[in-house]
Structures are given as C-alpha cells and as structure tokens.
Amino acid sequence: MKKKLLTTLSLAVIPWFLAWLMRLWFATCRVRVHNEEYFISSYGSEKAVIASFWHYTIIYLFYFVRKYPATAMVSASEDGEYIAGLAGQLGFNVVRGSSNNKGVGALKKLMRVVRKGETCAIVADGSQGPVRIAQPGAVLLASRTGVPILPMGWSASRYMTINSWDKTVVPMPFSRIDFYYGEPIFVPRGADGAEIEQYRLQLEQSLNALYAAAWACHGKSEH
User: What are the DSSP E strand ranges found in the chain?
Assistant: First the structure.
C-alpha cells in the first residue's frame, strides 16, 4: 500500500517538476530552425501530420513542439508512465502503446485522432529499439489515413547523455540547438507488405540523413 502511494505521488510530482525545469533550462538555449518550409507546407498550413523522430532526442523534441497541439504515442511500459506524464504536462494528449506491429490498439486510436485532422507524434524506433531502426508504426498509420510523415530532429553544441538504451541526449543550458525538419513522406493509401517495408526504410534513411546534417552543424558525425 505504501509503495503504491509513493508511486502515485511520484507520478504526480516528477513529470510536473521536469516540465517546470525544462521550461527554465531550455529557455536559455539559442535555436536555429532548418528546412522550415517542410513544416510550413504541412503542419504550418493547418494540415495534420505524423511527426516522427529518434527516441534519443525525445526530451527536447517534446519541449520544442509543445506549442503545436498533438497526440503523442508513449510506451505502455512502467517507465513510459513518466514520459506520458511529462507529455501531458507539456500539453500533449497521450495514447499508450507501441509503434511496432504489436501496438495495433494504439495505432487504431491514433487513426481516429488523425482522421479528425489532428497531428500525432510517433517515436520512429519505438520505446525499446533497436536504436535508430525505424518501426513500421508511422508508415502503417500514414498508409491508413493518407496523412504524411514529417521527419524531425535536432542537435546541440553542448549536451549531456543519459545512460539509457539509446543514450538519450539533453541540451545543456546556453547551448546552441539546430532543429531540422525533413521532407514529408507520403505513403500510398492501402500500402501493405513490401511497400510498407519500402517506406519504413525511406523513413529510417531520411531520419539518419537529417540527424547527420544536424550534428554536422557542430562538427560531429553523431552524438
């Protein structure tokens, strides 16, 4: 009973504190946005998009896009409780599930969201990896709804690395951040089988190229 109470309390307090800290911390950073025309031609024109990015950049990315209403898919795992709470504190609606083939229920919920004209965010490599290997979730969602995938990512001049499965990065205060949008990916409606794999690979390659360009701004090949 005591453990359950402590868990409930921590789930209420920690996401709130992290959101408060992020607003204070990241407000000191200088941000340059690249390829903004891809954003303007899709989400910026009030059209729904499927935002997709690598998991290791999730913390700042949620902060950056917080001003644009969206529904985020967050892992249904115990660890995902804190990410879901943080996303909620930053203004996101949250759907719990996975971006692999097993997350059917969550994808169906996102389909309903997207078909109403609302944007959603899916971590391309999922909550457990493999790291930087795109899962099919975003592509399946795009093929069922006709909504484009908008790749995005960022790099920072100074950052710290969290000892997690994907080596999550967090920008340091007063660092310079380069935020990149990729060219929207349009998946044919009803795509299946080999086509899904084709566009999954295209998303993976697009994100790798986008992140390589972002880190090159700071003289790095990767973090």
Answer: 30-34, 50-53, 71-74, 93-96, 120-123, 149-156, 159-161, 169-171, 176-181
pTM of the shown model:
0.89
The span from the CA of 172 to the CA of 177, in Å, is 10
Query: What are 58-90's pLDDT values in tens digits?
Result: 999 999 998 887 888 877 776 678 888 888 888
CA 68/CA 75 separation, integer angstroms = 21
Between CA 105 and CA 62 the distance in angstroms is: 23
In this structure, the strands spanning 149-156 and 176-181 are antiparallel
Domains and CATH numbers, the chain: 2-216 (3.40.1130.10)
Task: Dump pLDDT digits (tens) for 5-34.
Answer: 556 667 778 888 988 999 999 999 999 999
Tokens of 89: 């504190």
Rounded to a whole number of angstroms, the CA Rg of the chain reads 17
At how many degrees (to 10) do helices 194-216 and 137-145 cross? 120
